[in-house]
Automatic annotation (TrEMBL):
Lineage of source species: Bacteria, Bacillati, Actinomycetota, Actinomycetes, Micrococcales
Family matches, as InterPro entries: Cholesterol_Oxidase (IPR052542), FAD/NAD-bd_sf (IPR036188), GMC_OxRtase_C (IPR007867)
Taxonomy, superkingdom: Bacteria
PANTHER family: CHOLESTEROL OXIDASE, FAD-DEPENDENT OXIDOREDUCTASE 2 FAD BINDING DOMAIN-CONTAINING PROTEIN
EC number: 1.1.3.6, 5.3.3.1
Protein name per UniProt: Cholesterol oxidase
Transmembrane region(s): none
Keyword entries, A-Z: Cholesterol metabolism, FAD, Flavoprotein, Isomerase, Lipid metabolism, Oxidoreductase, Steroid metabolism, Sterol metabolism
Segments forming domain Glucose-methanol-choline oxidoreductase C-terminal: 501-557
Amino acid sequence: MAASSEPATSVAESASGTPEYVDAVVIGSGFGGSVTAYRLAEAGRSVILMERGHAYPPGTFARTPIEFAENFWSPADELYGLFETWSFRGLEGLVSSGLGGGSLIYANVLLRKDPEWFVHDSPLPGGGYENWPIGREDLDPYYDRVERMLDATPYPYHDTPKTETFALAAKAAGHEPFRPPLAVTFTGRDGELGGYLPIEPKPYGNIHGRMRYTCALSGECDIGCNSGAKNSLDHTYVSAAAHHGADVRTLHEVRGFRPVDGMWEVRYRRHRPNEGPPVEGTVRAARVVLGAGTFGSTYLLLKNRASLPGLSPALGSRFSGNGDLLGFLMGAKEQIDKVARARRITGSRGPVITSAIRIGDRVDGDGSAGRGYYVQEAGYPGFLNWMIETAQLKSVVSRSTRVALRMLANRLSMRGESNISGDLANVLGRTALSTSSLPVLGMGRDVPDGKMYLDRGRLAVDWTTTTSIDYFAAMRETMSKFAEELGAKYVDNPLWWAKRVITVHPLGGAPMGRNHFEGVVDEWGGVFGHPGLSVVDGAAMPGPVGPNPSLTIAAFADRAADHALEQWPKSRRRRRRTDATQPATGASQPTGGMSPMDANAAEQPGPGGPSGNGAVATSVAFTEQMKGFFVLGQGEPRSAAQDARVRDERMMFELTITAPDIDEFVSGDAHEGTASGYLESDALGGRLEVERGWFNLFVLAGHEEDRLMKYRLWLTTEGGSPVTFVGYKEVRDDPGFDLWEDTTTLFVQVLDGHVPPGTDVAATGLLDPDDPSVLGAGVLRIKPLDFAEQMTTFTTTGPGGAQAIARFGGLFLGKLWSTYGRLARAEDA
Ligand SMILES: Cc1cc2nc3c(=O)[nH]c(=O)nc-3n(C[C@H](O)[C@H](O)[C@H](O)COP(=O)(O)OP(=O)(O)OC[C@H]3O[C@@H](n4cnc5c(N)ncnc54)[C@H](O)[C@@H]3O)c2cc1C
Ligand code: SF4
């Protein structure tokens, strides 16, 4: 359900038509982002908080089936809802998209990470270590602060069946149950405990401008709290940030960022559901803080690698699902008068989680073995009871039929019984299944050996349960014991049958570490080698938190904000201005990296247009696809390609090479044509369209058969960084060289900025491998079959016809044309 109103502080950046400069852009309004936005704004910094999702004031969360069906985040499908679901190898992931991030759909549990679980140099299967550069003592003051801000309090009621049942089972199984602090308001203005009581407004106001009411025990915390009882981030940190002047913008999805002139330029897309196509924009800031969550922040870093030279090789590493496992205790029983009856657990009453147990870990040093974990009872919304019951539809139908027949008989016999409540109750049956069943959620120290990367521009995660299988076995045993104590049946969630898990606590991808090799960010979230850029969310966790992670993420962000404020130059306070000299919106063309020559570069002639002398020109074009390996951070193509092959870092392009005027092409010195199409490289963020491309075929002086084919493509990464792809093939017909190999091998570099033609130092167009402008290098090839296919793509326009192709081909391929040219000519005929 779309929110009825977006925050009042939201400013349409296009209204002024000018770009903005602020102290900090914070990306994402979850636990990392909203804490940071508040702390920076409170300290007097100008802050823009960009959140891709809607705002959800109390009362606007989806409840009907049609609202639920539309409640997913997938702008490509015109869906702008609350839930974002991911499916990867070995696991599924569920996160939120909305103002307040995960707090909108989380279960309110705020637990501190166990002191011993901040492990150091803990070896991982397959190499590497889990290492936390911070300890519990570093976070404790911040844990205190966040708990105060979120009014964390244990569940106060003592007559809630699921809480009491969980405690009973835990004790019977030999564990000590406890009630974790919850970020929920249970007491009204005058301190009275009860549901639906007005909540005392905060001194910093509320960004939604709506009244909030105390917890109604509806069990709907995971689908959004319509009463406003959850102390979610929109009601707390985001409201406080707005109070201190932060500019909170919903439906603003950040696409990328890059350093420009000592600042950061952030590119974003403003979604306009039901209004029109999205609007693109940029804003510049001294600091960019990534709080887009584990999936969001790691994805943005992977997408923008080309703009961030020297980014740590640890990017994408240490992924973990925080050991999440969902199980079910089905059909619990109790003895009443020596008769086993369905136990009334009523999992839908009360907040989703009210109690927990903790199982020790071998690192605790108290004799515990294995990897530690928590198990919590997990309630669910009341209306799910109806779904559970209607899943038993067959028996409902037969019960309905029986009752209908009885009512009919009643009518026919004129018995005239008007009270049919008993009959209707029969239709509903005893609803034993929903009443006596309870989901349980386990989480803890699984093995953080997952890897996040881009696969054809899309986020991929490789993580499986294999290395954590003992951990999950122990957890399932604990859950089964609970079931046993309650006379219930333990049932795995169906994903487990395929050894898959669903995580609501994804972590890692941009882990903190002691240095550039161990982590992407330092202990304060600062990205190594990129001052002013930081990651403050779940992505920065170098391993599982263990208990529910949001409190640790928030405390980490709070500590990072302290550090950022200490480091901030004193002169740079509350800087916010606009500059009318540059456009703010629209598909803005980045200027950084372009030389003045760019602006003056002559427009390329289109194919088949008038030639220089006014006669109609004959054009020739063909399409070429090449594939190979490319890696950032290296300059020498051959060794870079070897390295890229090991890392499986691929690159390909599909280009249409056009000689717009075959006469000019053949007779000119540079034999210049144009190149259009696209290039795909996950190192550069996925698929990039060629904005402008040049192709040259040089016949080397005095060597009719020796030629050099040169490619130059201007591209722009998603973060707005202009880059230039340069490549060359050498073709020599000397007996010592392999003509085929020469013709099909393209040596490649990608350079910073849009480097214009005519500025080459070397004939090949490539720079010295150590030149700082070289972002990466590699080698692309074309296979014989693809080459044969390429020959069939030759087309021509204008009066020259097949002859033009022959002239082009002869120059293009020399001796090889006599072999392959037949294919081109055959197609043309
Ligand atoms: C059902 C459920 C129950 C949970 N229960 C608990 C619990 O009880 N206790 C607990 O500690 N944790 C719980 N969690 C986990 C908790 O919600 C997450 O650990 C936490 O929200 C992660 O915080 P974060 O700051 O890393 O990211 P998030 O809170 O996920 O915030 C990221 C934000 O960034 C936005 N974003 C992403 N990409 C972009 C972009 N490109 N541009 C702009 N904005 C962007 C997203 O929309 C989102 O709002 C639960 C999660 C779920 C799904
Ligand atoms: S139980 Fe219901 S009212 Fe209480 S916090 Fe959860 S969703 Fe809100």
